[in-house]
Amino acid sequence: MIRQPERSDGVCMFRGRKRRFRQGPDRLQQESCRRRRTVEPDILQRLSTLLCRCSRLVLLVANESRSYRAEGDMPARIVASAREDWMPLKSLLVHLDPTGHSLQRLQAAVAMAARHHARLTGLYVKDLSVAQLTQQRAAELGLYPADELNRVIGSFDTAIETAAATAREQFERATQAAGVQAEWLCEAGKADEIVPLRARSVDLCILGHWKPEMENLPYLPRLVEQVLFLSGRPTLIIPGTDGTTDPGRHVLVGWDGSRAAARAVHDALPIIAAAEHTTVLTVNATEGDGASGEDIVRHFNAHGATATTVCIQAETSDIGEAILRHAESIKADMIVAGCYGHSRLRELILGGVTRTLLRQITLPVLMSS
């Protein structure tokens, strides 16, 4: 540390860490010049070496980039690194109910959890069916005697507890057989209120698809929409028809360049990256309209996925059915699509791709809102 001069005769006092010495002004200036002449060549040499190394690195990256475009493939180390860029599926939630198609939904959920090494939570909501609600309301209005009312309510409680115990037994047996880490939740209330709340803390929610011929539970017709709009998480809807119990090996992406499609694609990226093949389907796409599938295919390839693009033509009112037909023709086992490309009011009045997919679903569909 340099201290202020203590004498006025031109001699300055300097204090070092271990010793004290005295120097005159001319001596200091000569020493400073000698040090600069010694240090500057050393700094220039180091800068030159650093620039040379940076130039070599830029050339190496450019050569590898050209090889990617020429060969259409990336080195294995780059692919392995790209696969780690997205967040993997580590927590799944499957909603189970007393319908006859709940077991197939459970099998699909267990298969996905096993493939992605994810934790699977089974959620069962104890609720009354429409027939049970009708009888309970009639009893409460006095249409049944008091003792009959107690008997009716008791029979409902017994039926609900039996159905919940059966679902839990099936869940535990399936997860143990597959070696999947599992958790069981059973709550009383309305499923269209409980499931969206529970789905907010998982990576993917798996639901069943409601049809009029299924058991008439009051919440089923609106459960899918409630989860899509209130949970903020991607939702996989499993159809009630007999089909694949291991979805996600051949994925069909319905791509139109919209925000909803981009959100669904990003949420499904762990599934797409792990799939054997992904087909990006565009309908009535024209060059320069932003709906071309080439850009999103390159995005998938950058994440280590194998993807191709297909463009088909269809009537505007038939886009949803065209997507379903093409998925069946290429034997895809999952569809990824954005949810509600139009406003909800217009969607309810005019129909649309989303509503067509939900009504005529024939294979698992992953949607995000």
List keywords for this structure.
369 residues; Rossmann fold; ten-stranded mixed beta sheet; UspA domain-containing protein; Universal_stress_UspA; UspA
SSE blueprint and pairings:
Layout: E1 12-15, E2 20-23, H1 25-71, H2 76-82, E3 91-96, H3 102-116, E4 119-126, H4 130-140, H5 146-178, E5 182-188, H6 191-199, E6 204-208, H7 220-230, E7 235-238, E8 250-254, H8 259-267, H9 269-274, E9 277-283, H10 294-302, E10 307-312, H11 319-329, E11 334-338, H12 344-350, H13 353-359, E12 365-368
Parallel strand pairs: 3-4, 3-6, 4-5, 6-7, 8-9, 8-11, 9-10, 11-12
Antiparallel strand pairs: 1-2, 7-12
Helix pairs in contact: 3-5, 4-5, 6-7, 11-13
Protein name: UspA domain-containing protein
Pfam family, one: Usp
Family: Belongs to the universal stress protein A family.
Structure commentary:
With 369 residues, the chain is an alpha/beta fold. Among the domains are: 111 residues, 3-Layer(aba) Sandwich (Rossmann fold); 123 residues, Rossmann fold (3-Layer(aba) Sandwich). It is 49% helix and 18% strand. The chain has 13 helices and twelve strands. The protein has a ten-stranded mixed beta sheet, sandwiched between helices. Helix 7 links the parallel strand 6 and strand 7. Helix 3 runs parallel beside helix 5 and helix 6 packs parallel to helix 7. The radius of gyration is 33 Å and the shape is elongated.
Strand order of the largest sheet: 5-4-3-6-7-12-11-8-9-10
**Percent range of helical residues:** 40-55%
CATH topology of the domain at 247-369: Rossmann fold
Overall geometry: elongated
SSE run: EEHHEHEHHEHEHEEHHEHEHEHHE
Examine the secondary-structure arrangement and name the CATH architecture of the domain at 247-369: 3-Layer(aba) Sandwich
As a percent range, the share of strand residues is 15-25%
Provide a count of the helices.
13
Secondary-structure class: alpha/beta
Oligomer: single chain
CATH H-tier superfamily of the domain at 247-369: HUPs
